[in-house]
Amino acid sequence: MKRTLLFGGTFDPPHVAHTQVPHAAMISLCFDSVLYIPASQAPLKEEPLSSSVHRLAMLELALCDYPWAEISTIELDRGGTSYTIDTIESLLNQGEELRILIGADQWTQFEQWHRWEDIMAMANPVIMPRKGCDNSHERVLPIKPLPAASTDIRQRLREGTSIDSLVCPMVLSYIAQHSLYL
Q1: CATH code at 49?
Q2: How does pLDDT run across 60-97, given as a tens digit for each residue?
Q3: How far is CA 12 from the centre of its chain?
Q4: Mean local confidence (pLDDT), 14-22
Q5: What is the C-alpha to C-alpha distance for residues 145 and 107, in angstroms, rounded to an integer?
Q6: Domain limits at 27?
Q7: Which of 62, 121, 133, 142 has the greatest CB tally within 10 Å of its CB?
Q8: Averaged pLDDT, 102-111
């Protein structure tokens, strides 16, 4: 049976922490792959700044060299508010062992998630540590957090500060080519 970590987010833009931390989690848990699931609209976040077309294109570029990473457009295809439980229920029919990978910042509001108890039962969440968050919970993986956040990257771009070390070169080129986040 294939063991897959589910990793959802807006990926606006995708950055090095979006690739390195889930990969470290996958290795730590002895899973086979990470399935990236870009959200159409996350219920507890503001609307993404970039269109789903741009976010998906950047995510494809960020992951193109990683054979362990896959992308599902299930939430983008569904449109509207993206509820994690709907996605899990759709993916469970494929007979894989699934666990959801979330950031420590999201764990603090996990009980606000739609049908969070069902998520616990179906996809037993594991937590990625994040700088500035309480990382002491037993579900937090023993992996190193990286200091990248999409919010910070967008701010740096508006200020004209370099993000070279925070996103892969192809994503950086895409952002420049499409004048995103300015």
Answers
A1: 3.40.50.620
A2: 999 999 999 999 999 999 998 889 999 999 998 767 89
A3: 10
A4: 95
A5: 15
A6: 3-147
A7: 62
A8: 92
